[in-house]
Design a protein that fits this description.
Strand order of the largest sheet: 3-2-4-5-1-6
Strand content: 5-15%
Shape: elongated
Bound molecules: adenosine-5'-triphosphate, magnesium ion
Helix content: 40-55%
Number of strands: 6
Largest sheet: 6 strands, parallel
Length: 213
């Protein structure tokens, strides 16, 4: 056997060895995953909180809602803060037969500084949210930017927690906002933090339709 052949043979053995190792590791991982999957047997809706200072909370909520819509589910959105512009997701979903989209009245925007008017609008939005939380025909509710209502003291968080806990068993709820009230975090099933590492805005890039709104 030439030296070249020997090198080839040892390379062959080495790659076989690596292959076997990989297979063993994957089998072990699959066993762990299978055990976890076997344990997760409960079927019910979940409360998801998307918080943090990075970009991606509202768009993730609407993306998840899109999944539900794809599965034929009925959804509703309440936007607790009315932005300046019509968002792309609003334009897309507003006439969708499976989605009811509510933008909180004339109320809170970053521009208004009328606290009384803001509180009234917040209360109206909450009254609607409370109705939706009693209605089992809605499979998913998105309360976008709701967390600010608690931060600014426009709404009490306790009745919201009670309504969330008494909602229909299969109903999923997603709440977004940079900071989350602790009582909400205590009853949530899934909490994801979107961290801000960099944002194009700080590089001087102008907000654009399709990315920012
Ligand atoms: P998105 O709607 O893009 O998912 P978001 O819901 O996570 O963003 P918000 O805090 O609701 O973020 O802010 C909404 C707007 O502010 C979006 O236009 C978003 O691009 C922008 N934004 C989000 N995070 C930052 C940031 N860290 N710096 C500057 N602008 C941001
Ligand atoms: Mg948002």
């Amino acid at each position: 056997m030439s030296n070249d052949d020997k090198t080839l043979e040892s390379k062959d053995l080495e790659s076989k060895h690596l292959e076997n190792k990989h297979r063993e590791r994957m089998a072990a991982r699959k066993a762990v995953m299978d055990a976890k999957i076997a344990q997760a047997v409960e079927e019910r809706g979940v409360l998801i909180l998307l918080k943090g200072n990075g970009k991606g909370k509202s768009s993730s909520a609407f993306g998840t809602m899109l999944r539900s819509v794809g599965h034929g589910k009925r959804c509703a959105v309440i936007q607790f803060i009315k932005g300046r512009t019509e968002t792309g997701e609003y334009k897309f979903f507003k006439d969708h037969p499976q989605v009811d989209w509510h933008v909180m009245g004339h109320g809170f925007t970053w521009e208004t500084q009328d606290r009384e008017q803001d509180i009234e609008a917040a209360k109206k939005a909450w009254a609607l949210a409370e109705e939706l939380l009693k209605d089992p025909t809605y499979d998913m509710l998105v309360f976008d930017e709701m967390s600010y209502m608690f931060k600014y003291g426009y709404l009490d968080v306790e009745p919201v927690v009670v309504a969330l806990e008494h909602r229909p068993l299969a109903q999923n709820v997603i709440i977004t906002g940079r900071t989350m009230a602790l009582p909400l975090q205590e009853v949530a099933d899934t909490i994801s933090v979107v961290q801000d590492e960099r944002h194009a805005f700080r590089l001087g890039v102008k907000a654009q339709p399709g990315i920012e709104y």
